[in-house]
Design a protein that fits this description.
- The chain is α+β, with helices and mostly antiparallel strands and 148 residues long.
- Helices cover 27% and strands 36% of the residues.
- It is built from three helices and five strands.
- It is elongated and about 60 Å long.
């Protein structure tokens, strides 16, 4: 598999291996190509999807070593019920807990670099589908032997 896919799988494994009580809402993370709403009615409970997002840069470190910046996106989604305000607040807490858990945590042999969660929630998904969708973008760095 690709470095990005391996990294996404490692982030999934890390989230699923979190000690009980780490997150206020139980979930099982999985890897997906994109965290998107296909059929909002299929989202019965909170889902956490980790997606390979890209390689924004590769830097030469030595003649035989490069540093690859690797990005994954962690999407948190839930179909909302009748109490939108309370549900969005609870899901926001879960997003904060996932952010706190991932900060500084290396994965799949790659070193944590930075994390962003902006915008906090997709207004389009909320308005059009009544689905809370928050995206957390996590950047890692991996040293790779250069083929020269």
């Amino acid at each position: 598999m690709s470095r990005l896919t391996d990294l996404a799988d490692a982030v999934v494994a890390a989230l699923n291996a979190a000690p009980g009580g780490t997150f206020s809402t139980a979930f099982e993370a999985s890897r997906s190509v994109l965290p998107r709403v296909t059929n909002a009615d299929e989202i019965e409970s909170v889902r956490v999807l980790v997606s390979p997002a890209g390689v924004p840069s590769v830097e030469t470190r030595t003649r035989k070593l490069t540093a690859h910046r690797l990005r994954v996106t962690v999407g948190v989604q839930q179909k909302l019920g009748d109490d939108e305000e309370a549900e969005v607040a609870a899901l926001g807490t879960l997003v904060d807990e996932i952010v706190d858990y991932l900060i500084g945590r290396d994965a799949g042999g790659a070193t944590f670099v930075e994390l962003a969660n902006s915008p906090f929630c997709s207004e389009k998904h909320l308005v059009e589908n009544r689905v809370f969708t928050s995206l957390i973008v996590v950047t890692y760095s991996a040293l790779v032997a250069a083929d020269r």
